[in-house]
Amino acid sequence: MSHNHGSTGTTTGSSSGASTTVDLADKVAYGLLYASQHEKHIMYAWIIWVLIAFVLGAGFILRLTKAHRQIPLASVSRRLFLKQTFPCTNWRMSVARGHVFALFLYIAYNFVFTFADIPYGRKYRYPSKHNGMMQTATTMQFTANRTGFLAFSGVPLVFLLAARNNLVSWATGIPYNALNFLHRWVGRVVFILSWLHIILWSLELDINYFPKGKHSYYNTRWTMRYWLGGFAATVFLCFLCLHSLPFVRRWTGYEFFRSMHVFGSLLFLIGCWVHWPTAFQWIAAGIAILFADHMARTSRMLFIQLRGRGSAEAVVGIFSDEDEVDVMRITIKNCGIKSWRAGQHVFLCFPAHSRFQAHPFTVANSSNKTHNPDGDLVFVVRRKNGMTDRLCQLAAESKTLKVWVDGPYGVGALSPEISGRHIQLVAGGTGISFALSAVSELTGRDIPGTMQLDWYVRRRANTAWFGNDLAKLSHLFGSTLRISIHITRESPLTASSTEKDTSNSSLTAIEGVTYSYDKNSCAEVLRMYASTVDPRQGTSKIAVLACGPGSMGPNVRNAVAEMNGSVDVKCVMEDYV
Ligand SMILES: Cc1cc2nc3c(=O)[nH]c(=O)nc-3n(C[C@H](O)[C@H](O)[C@H](O)COP(=O)(O)OP(=O)(O)OC[C@H]3O[C@@H](n4cnc5c(N)ncnc54)[C@H](O)[C@@H]3O)c2cc1C
User: What Gene Ontology terms describe where this protein resides (cellular component) (predicted)?
Assistant: First the structure.
């Protein structure tokens, strides 16, 4: 990235002895400045990594020593940082202030050190080593090189934030999929820095370096290695940024996006390496993270298949409702995964559909032996247009399907800190998996508080996905667990007319479960639960575990942020995006 266009060489095009001395003095001054600036570029590219390592290290030590539980301002910081940045409930715009703050710090660092510590306004005139003609170098090229170095140093961060086996997640406890926002935006910062590098160098070559015409730098340089590498890297970087825009991703399909993203990233990295091998360490780090992540995924999947002797089978049941929405309940038997934590997800690959596609689904039960002696994994999966659609068709043809499983992934919903609080679970549609696995995992444990599960479904018939499980849990927990089902697309009248259809067992009321047809938003439900919590009963702290589609995520985060301060409320969310 850092170029030295004709900074050395002995040929001189000047005729007089005096001007030769001036040229040489300029050349020496330029060489010295170039060397000192080069050191600074390297220093600023590294400092950001020292800061990142410090933050990750501090996060890791806090988690290891459990000291974060004692931080007195935790509730206040949740009030500040959990709230959505934009006042809307559209999940596409849904991003917590904490993430935006982290991004702001990263952008601010890059902005400041793109321009800082560079001596502006100097010009050096000396003969080019290529054609002996006089050229003028200005300090614009130092800003250009600085952006190049900062862009290179951002590359490993982009890959680090995208990995499924994620070091940042491991150190901080933030789920790897929640880091996707930062992955995308750090990528965009690298994109902007790269374009600044290109534009500033183009201006330097075009305006300040002479001559023009057939001897111009563009004509003489474009076949050189650094130019070709830089050109290729820019093309692939533009491709990566453009094809990951939401509307392009929807248009090309998720699977095409994913494979092209990995392939395009690899070509981008190769282009960068060819462009500037001197700064290879950043690129090598990016390649290492990409390969390590894919190796870890593949070997884990192989290990699981070997442990399960390759005999994992999925039994799929299909539920359809009046809205023509199909949901599958998938039970996987003989799978090599022996234990998982509530709220974790796995990647399922059905070879009968494709050996090259694995999709994430949240496990709906727990590996708690009293609950699940056979170690089966249960999922509820909503039919969409790709693999899930094909799966529905395959399930209609065959009772069991061969499946490959990779996982579990995610940090889990129930840290000891969460299970030591009153727990409010909010689920929308298939998001019930997240809540059910948490409640199942808590069976047999001594929990200090109460639990309230609010499940939003469109129709009462949807409760059939988990009718028996809800009844069992309600029976096991007794008064400690209250379950409310909120039906959003039926009125009591329409529901009671369908309830007369006694052949449908899902419509008979589940014992211990209350049904409501209210339009209470989940924010109201959260506030109502908080007002009923009795601080004399074990603890006054509340944990909210939520998972659901669309606007549920932003609504819950905002509500929890607002409640914090007066009550200590911690939130664990799973988004299916
Ligand atoms: C952590 C996590 C847990 C999830 N748990 C569940 C669950 O328990 N039940 C459930 O019904 N759904 C769950 N989902 C969503 C589920 O993964 C997608 O609905 C499914 O992959 C869609 O497959 P498709 O080919 O039919 O989708 P398409 O109709 O092709 O695409 C629909 C949308 O699904 C998403 N998607 C598609 N493929 C993938 C993929 N490989 N990885 C991630 N997202 C993808 C994209 O946003 C896409 O726009 C979860 C998603 C995540 C990220």
Answer: plasma membrane
